[in-house]
Amino acid sequence: MPCKSNDELKELVKEARKITKNGRVADYIPALGKANPNDLSIAINFPDGRCFSAGDIEKKISLQSISKVVTLALVLMDRGKQYVFERVGMEPTGDPFNSIAKLESMVPSKPLNPMINAGALAVTHMIKGNTVDERFHRLLTFIRELANNDTIHYNEEIAQSEYDTAHLNRALCYFLKQHQIIEENVEELIDLYTKQCAIEMNCLDLSRIGVVFALDGVDPETGKQIMPKNVARICKTFMVTCGMYNASGEFAIKIGIPAKSGVSGGIMGAVPGKFGIGILGPALDEKGNSIGGIRLLELLSKTYNLSMF
Asked: Binding positions for substrate (predicted)?
């Protein structure tokens, strides 16, 4: 079903766009620095197939850290909860998403949660398969099923740009390897992780994935249980506690829905039992979240009383 333009959403986007000038795109990854900071769009996907949108929703963004949620779901299905959380913790952190500090002070030395880079690298390491290509294909197939879009792929330019500049992530990998959290070749893991982060889609695809999480893993069109209910619950809990980097607590108070952001300016939201949200807004605030996207969600939550708390 096509996503219909909505006048109310247009007004909210118009209002939220006023502050995009206060943000900046993530130019530390050169390919992401090409984005237009004034872009802002949203799609809202309902369980009954209705979809409403505003802005240029056909523009694509790379998932970046949003991919961490989906990869966690796949790995929980692959390995089980006990295996995963023996190697990655469940606790939020006030440190930046790419910090190495807590790894050095934690005993045992494992990442605090799957939403920071160290934890995400450990989770990506757990994707089953014999080669990078096989593992990436399994993840991509899962994402295509969630979004109901077989054309989704990754952006090779962004993946290469991230691979070439992933020095801090390499350092995290070597630290994790020293402490037996990961065991594979670091360059192969970085290759897989950068491709994972470079998977790209539009707001409609993002909102479609969001509604599957909102429905506890059920495909709204077929009724198929794509992921177990408990897996969806765990992922949504991490989205609430850690999904918006170290602004997650403030986000929970002001907006109050499970959501995950990425430094491309994407935000995926899942309002439990109600609908999925996909947002594109490349201009970021100082925490690495879409500045226009956060404002848009604040307006949405206030207007429609979205908070689950």
From this structure: 65, 117, 162, 169, 193, 245, 263
